Fold these 2 entries.
Entry 1:
Amino acid sequence: MKFKLELNHFGYIKQRESFDLEFKENFHLGDKLLEYLKTLVGMANNKGGEIVFGIKDKPRIPIGMTNDKFISIDPNKINQKLMTHFSHEVEWDMNIINLGEKVFGILSVKESSRKPIICKTTVNKILREGAIYYRYRGETKEINYSELSYILEKEKEKEKLLWIKHIERIGKVGPQNIHILDTYNGDIEVGTQKVLLDSKLLDKLKFVKEGQFVEKDGAPTLTLTGEIAGVIDTDNLPAPDKLYPFRATEIQKRLNINSYEFQILINKLNIKGNPKYHTAIKISSKNYTHKYTNSLVNKLEALLNRYPDTIENIKQEIKKNRNNKNSS
């Protein structure tokens, strides 16, 4: 939290609204909430920033919030709306500060590590599908060409630097010591053979993501450097079970949820087809079994612990969409 309440001799706030700071008198829901999220995303596409609630405009006087909507809102509601309306995860937080009897709310967001964040939906005149919002000095609007060009060039430069670091690592250990981990099928190839890794070792490995490229029938792969031991025959490798140890029923039991609840979570988070969390293993000419990683279990546990109403909110959203479809 960067904001500090500093007053001049008139009792007005010294700070002005800028590319990383915006003031609001009160926190509201509905379309106003979407406007706040639009501003947060605009800040994330720039350098990050904060929205401070409880500041009267013209002149900027710290009066504190006069309603309890900021205090009572479920953070999961904000998180769900961000997931619904924008392309990828936004690192945001909310805090409350008390000064005497005055209460102030702060929504803060970090600069996004993946830019640009893109709007996925059109809502009234607030959000537009395909728009990229950017925070300028004192206002949030669709990005101008110069800023978008800069962001895209920076992203290209980041990718270039990652490739350079990756190639430098290969140069240090020699290309003969570089092996390929197929994260879709769970294979590590060393020439024409495959490598078996102990499941305990897998948790300690740090994969070099900057070397990402496509190999072996389009399956995503990562490059590993370092010593790997334990070469075994291809036909005896149970690699998918090493990397994807959980079936759906096992996760449901661990999280104390039913099959329907598990499926709506998986669908909402777009888990299927993401090799970090899921793989489909062919068991016959037409049938597959679905397996999941430990990373997914940790992700779902963290989500449900932090936002216990997540499943119920998704159910309500599905119900609302069905009602809207039936009425149209």
Entry 2:
Amino acid sequence: MEDLRRSYGRVTAVDGLSLRVAAGELFALVGPDGAGKTTTIRILCGILRPDSGTVSVFGHDLRLEPGWIKANVGYFSQRFTLYGDLTVDENIEFFARIHGVQSFRERREQLLAFTRLEPFRRRLADRLSGGMKQKLALACTLIHSPRLVLLDEPTTGVDPVSRREFWLILSDLLAQGITILMSTPYLDEAERATRVGLVHDGRLLAVGTPAGVRRAMAGTVLEVVTPDTRGATARLRAVGADVQLFGDRVNVIVREATGGEAFVRSTLAAAGIEVTFLREVPSSLENAFISLVRGRENARAADAPPSGAPGGGAPGGGAPGPGQEEAGR
């Protein structure tokens, strides 16, 4: 896709997004609700028309060859769109006929075994658990043997065990050479992808392997454990530090470990806040994403190009945000 744009009235959902996904990879489009992920995927499968920009799939133009796209792309909707009053077998048959697959029975048997739904084939879809519904939706998505599968937040609202099983299925699909583009709000889940694209406000902030995006974040992450996490967070932010709160842990992004540790300890000691434990930890995709977003917001506030230095005014404090490992094309 090149320079993709789509607005809903005055709201811009996708703002100049350019991206290339390689054949046979699992690419994760990562961002919060409202980032533009669902709109992008709906454009890619032909449900929505972009206001501008181009989309090609394996060299086929979406505008000129919609029939080819329909035959070779599988779309997994964010919402459960199957028929609750049909059985598992009947839902798969229904979607097979929609895609013009006449001899579908052997393929259905393969998919039922693949998704481990064979024991439930005569159960109504409405009576399936959340995880089984997701697997049934995936089976319906795969019934016409697509080359590209688009998954829109497939594990949202699914229990941890079902999420793990779903990812095992995706791994098997990759082994078959199927290309997968999925959206997810879960940064920990995106770590399993071949490459990730971090999206915010319809714009692509960074693209690369999960490890590459993490490495691109300048600075060091210090994890602080304290009885007063909120007080520590407020105090460190007051002196310009780049602080990220994760449950009962405070992450502080510093330029280097030694000076940053001394800065954190002295700042909190001056405020009478005890530090129970402090250590350097590897950066995560969540650290990288938050720093990128803050850098962009700070740049907007200053009405200047991104400086990559959120919270950089504090001694040993905030470090520059991560750049892009490669251009999003």
